[in-house]
Write a structure and sequence with these properties.
The complex is a heterodimer of chains A (about 170) and B (about 350). Chain A has 2 domains: about 80 residues, Up-down Bundle (Four Helix Bundle (Hemerythrin (Met), subunit A)); about 45 residues. Chain A is about 75% helix and about 0% strand. The longest helix of chain A has 26 residues. Chain A starts with a helix and ends with a helix. Chain B has about 350 residues and is an all-alpha fold. Chain B has one domain. Chain B has a two-stranded antiparallel sheet. In chain B, a hairpin with a 2-residue loop joins strand 1 and strand 2. The longest helix of chain B has about 35 residues. Classes of the chains: A mainly alpha (about 170), B mainly alpha (about 350).
């Protein structure tokens, strides 16, 4: 039953992710990205992580991508303004760094994959993924990382305001 | 298993019937009559079938027929796929919200617990908020794909307005969440059985801010800068005709119902009658047996719930025909400089009060 939902959604996600890269128009890419994020939210729901799924929609699909769309439309980027990935200036350092980062992520995924016993299904408590449980975990076991992350976000916000203000003055 | 499936299907059918089948078409008529009433006119009364006009109610049928038969026009240079898709993206969120909206409490019918909500999600309140924020895309993409500068300006205004007021909306929801300590809409509704625990009394500021933010989200006057007729022809839906235009139109009316339903659940006691607990109500109809009394109480509660929804819809109509359109900069100022600090202060004060009471 779960697989019946998982495979179409996962396939759609991959197709849309490819759409983000290969679409010629920026708006098309943005819309593909939104679709992919909704697909990811569906996969989170399948994993019983309702709260994460909703956050995925609110933050990425609902807030960040609306701003993306807004900026794309404000600049009114048209199809063909961009010459595609092939002719772009290639920053060697950035490429190498990205390559290493990707390798690192892949290594982590492989590590998890091989450490998990696939034959025994995981058992979850009834309260798994509920808002109350996540909130409790965040504010007890992970309170320091949580606060550090909020300060980082705050600093980024202040930085954005300062940068924008400098240009206005 | 099968019984549950049938019950869920019945609930979905009921919600679709009452929103798309009843409220959306009837509201087109009510809006005309209400505007006529407030401007001392007679209003729509010309459509007749064999001489009967039925107070102009046949205009609903005439409107529907007109929309179905009009040419579906796609302008030159428009993005055909997105132009067709965007009315759907605009309409669907308004309907999907109802998946978590309870229109009654829990009742025991034929030894079976029936919960009058399609899906009682643990994150119900956030779900409403998430889906509401998705509606933005319908309007933004509509304007962009039309290849028309008026439309593009309209959708830019839509995007900025909806982003701005979503912030207030989200922060107001947090106040409600703090007071009731749950995100399940059914539990928030059930917590308001006591008249003095209605959201309106616990979050008075939140009530007004939520109402303002949701009218702004729905882009109705006084927040209709995105479709300002005197400046932008018709804003983001300038290039739409026929049924696609009808879907934008319908989305607005369905959203009015959605706003009414959410306001009722968060602030106006959901399905409860003031000073009358469900237990008392059940005891009045005790002579009908368990199923009978539960059935009667269920009908009363659903009736009360929709009566409150109708009240909020009427309130939105009165606001629409009373206030003039705000200027674009006024809308932004209200959103960021007045409502945002107020909603943050609301959270702070709510927290202090909760702390003091504990």
């Amino acid at each position: 039953m779960e697989l019946l939902i998982f495979y179409p959604v996962a396939g759609l996600c991959v197709a849309l992710a490819l759409g983000v890269i290969f679409n010629n128009s920026p708006v098309g890419s943005a819309i593909s990205l939104i679709g992919m994020m909704l697909g990811l939210a569906a996969i989170f729901v399948l994993q019983q992580a309702h709260f994460i799924a909703i956050l995925q929609i609110i933050i990425y699909a609902g807030a960040i991508m609306v701003l993306f769309m807004f900026v794309i439309m404000l600049l009114n980027l048209k199809q063909g303004d961009d010459k595609g990935w092939a002719s772009r200036d290639q920053n060697l350092l950035l490429s190498v760094l990205t390559g290493f980062l990707t390798l690192g992520v892949l290594y982590k995924i492989a590590e998890v994959l091989f450490s998990v016993d696939m034959n025994t299904p995981a058992t979850l408590p009834d309260t798994f993924g509920t808002v109350a449980v996540i909130g409790e975990t965040l504010f007890t076991d992970f309170v320091l990382p949580f606060e550090v992350a909020s300060i980082l976000l705050l600093a980024a916000m202040v930085g954005a305001v300062v940068l924008a203000k400098n240009k206005l003055d | 298993m099968w019984v549950d499936l049938i019950i869920t299907l019945v609930k979905i059918f009921f919600i679709l019937a009452i929103t798309v089948g009843f409220f959306a078409p009837v509201l087109t008529w009510v809006e005309r009559k209400q505007s006529a009433l407030m401007q001392d006119r007679i209003g729509a009364n010309r459509a007749d079938i064999m001489g009967f006009t039925a107070l102009g109610l046949f205009h609903i049928i005439a409107d529907a027929l007109k929309m179905f038969t009009k040419e579906d026009f796609i302008p030159d240079g428009a993005n055909k796929v997105l132009h067709t898709l965007s009315p759907i993206i605009a309409l669907v969120p308004a309907l999907v919200t109802f998946a978590v909206v309870p229109f009654g409490g829990q009742y025991t019918l034929f030894d079976k617990e029936v919960n009058l909500v399609i899906s009682d999600l643990d994150v119900g309140l956030l779900f409403v908020f998430a889906i509401a924020s998705l509606a933005t895309y319908g309007y933004v993409i509509a304007g962009w794909s039309s290849n028309n500068n008026w439309s593009l300006l309209g959708s830019m205004r839509t995007a900025s307005q909806m982003i701005s007021y979503e912030v207030t909306m989200g922060l107001t929801i947090i106040g409600v969440l703090m007071v009731y300590g749950t995100m399940k809409l059914t539990e928030i509704g059930a917590a308001q059985e006591d008249f003095l625990r209605w959201g309106f009394f616990l979050q008075p500021l939140g009530f007004f801010m939520f109402l303002t933010a949701s009218i702004a989200e729905n882009k109705r006057i006084p927040f209709d800068a995105p479709e300002a007729e005197s400046e932008l022809v018709a804003g983001y839906f300038t290039e739409y005709s026929g049924l696609k235009f009808g879907m934008f139109f319908m989305a607005e009316f369905v959203e009015m119902v959605t706003i009414g339903a959410i306001m009722t659940i968060l602030f106006f006691g959901a399905w409860h009658i003031p000073f009358l607990t469900t237990a008392t109500l059940l005891s009045w109809f005790d002579f009908l047996g368990t199923t009978g009394s539960n059935l009667v109480v269920m009908l009363i509660h659903v009736g009360v719930f929709f009566a409150k929804v109708v009240f909020f819809i009427y309130l939105q109509m009165i606001i629409r025909w009373t206030l003039p359109r705000f200027r674009y900069d006024q809308i932004m100022k209200l959103g960021w400089k007045i409502l945002l600090p107020l909603s943050l202060a609301n959270i702070f004060v709510t927290g202090l009060v909760i702390l003091a009471l504990n």
